[in-house]
Specification:
With 197 residues, this protein is α+β, with helices and mostly antiparallel strands. 25% of the residues lie in helices and 27% in strands. It has five helices and nine strands, in the order E-E-H-H-H-E-E-E-H-E-H-E-E-E. It has helices at residues 24-37, 47-52, 54-58, 111-125, 140-149; strands spanning 2-3, 15-18, 62-68, 71-79, 94-102, 130-136, 152-153, 159-162, 165-173. Strands 1, 2, 3, 4, 5, 6, 7, 8 and 9 form a nine-stranded mixed sheet that branches. Strand 5 (94-102), helix 4 and strand 6 form a beta-alpha-beta unit. The structure holds coenzyme A. Coenzyme A is lined by residues 9-10, 34-35, 38, 100-102, 107-113, 135, 139, 141-142, 144-145, 148.
Length: 197
């Protein structure tokens, strides 16, 4: 089933839908390209192979894509509940998404925001109370995107998967925003996201 999200921007031809195996090669390519372009793969730690293994993560949740006609321009792995091998910081009642990526040529059109909003919608529909994510501490673009949508830092859950890679934990409280139209305002209870110093 596909969902066209009628928010603002210049991406009206973009459709957010569940990926099929026919999309996996394109998802692998755009995800590696996007992470590479933003400097995530500078440390040789095997993450490139993990990002490229789309079939391997397909059973962990729902892979969503942003498609424009035949072109797959963005993707994300959404997990409605914790428990899979890909789940990192989600606890009971929390959804999580990972490996959000938009092809470098298609960035800054609002596609990343649409994919995040689609995850929030699915989490809400699944009855989750919150959506949690981890982000590299040096990437200011994604942190701005998450802050704009209402994610807040939860520093007590920051963590490091391997030496030299520091991740900040972020949370979107679904109990504080009942609808997708309403999720631009950050909940007041936590400090807003700001790029780490
Ligand atoms: C993070 C990422 C997914 C964002 O994708 P995106 O499609 O560019 O995201 P958006 O277009 O929704 O928002 C990005 C910026 O473009 C701006 N933008 C959105 N629509 C726009 C438009 N029509 N024209 C110009 N700018 C626009 C947004 O305001 C935002 O600006 P900001 O950086 O000042 O906050 C992408 O940069 C990426 O793949 N990065 C590498 C992988 C990564 O870091 N993933 C996240 C891991 S936590």
């Amino acid at each position: 089933m596909s969902t066209t999200i009628p928010d603002s921007g210049t991406s009206d031809s973009i459709v957010i839908r569940t990926a099929t195996p026919a999309d996996y090669a394109a998802i692998a390519e755009l995800t590696v390209d996007a992470y590479e372009a933003d400097g995530h793969l500078a440390d040789e730690n095997g993450y490139r192979e993990t990002l490229a293994d789309v079939a391997g993560r397909a059973s962990a949740g729902e892979i969503l894509v942003a498609a424009e006609g035949p072109d797959v321009l963005g993707a994300v792995l959404f997990m409605a509940q914790p428990g899979s091998a890909y789940s990192e910081i989600a606890r009971s009642g929390e959804a999580e998404f990972r490996m959000l990526a938009v092809a470098p040529k298609a960035q800054r059109r609002g596609i990343g925001e649409r994919l995040v909003r689609a995850c929030l919608d699915r989490a809400r529909a699944a009855g989750a109370q919150a959506v949690v994510i981890s982000a590299r501490d040096f990437i200011q673009g994604p942190l701005r995107l998450y802050a704009r949508l209402g994610f807040v830092r939860i520093p007590e859950r920051d963590w490091s998967p391997i030496p030299g890679v520091q991740l900040v934990a972020l949370k979107y409280d679904l109990t504080a925003s009942p609808s997708n139209e309403d999720n631009s305002a950050p909940p007041a209870a936590h400090a807003p996201v700001s790029p780490p110093s």
